[in-house]
Amino acid sequence: GMAEVLRLQRRLRELEEELARERGGRRAPRARIEAMSAEVTDTNPYSRLMALKRMGIVKDYEKIRTFTVAVVGVGGVGSVTAEMLTRCGIGKVM
């Protein structure tokens, strides 16, 4: 019930505070970008995807955020594959 929700919210705050202490002032992770920009700049994490768009390989670059991809094995090839998919803006990597 409501008491359980309050307890979980309190625990969540405790864990967030603990995480902040563990990070020791390190920068927080980047917030999710709501709208993908076609502008190629150092601050645009989707610049690689924009290069593919300019080459005509990717037409609807916004759609990539809706895809889920499963990578089987994250060794030498799989880990690089997962990273590149993430850098291109894939919605979810499993």
UniProtKB/TrEMBL annotation:
Pfam families found in the cross-reference section: ThiF
Cited InterPro entries: ThiF_NAD_FAD-bd (IPR000594), Ubiquitin-activating_enz (IPR035985)
Domain THIF-type NAD/FAD binding fold: start-end pairs: 46-93
Organism: Anser brachyrhynchus (Pink-footed goose)
Protein name: THIF-type NAD/FAD binding fold domain-containing protein
Molecular function via GO: ubiquitin-like modifier activating enzyme activity
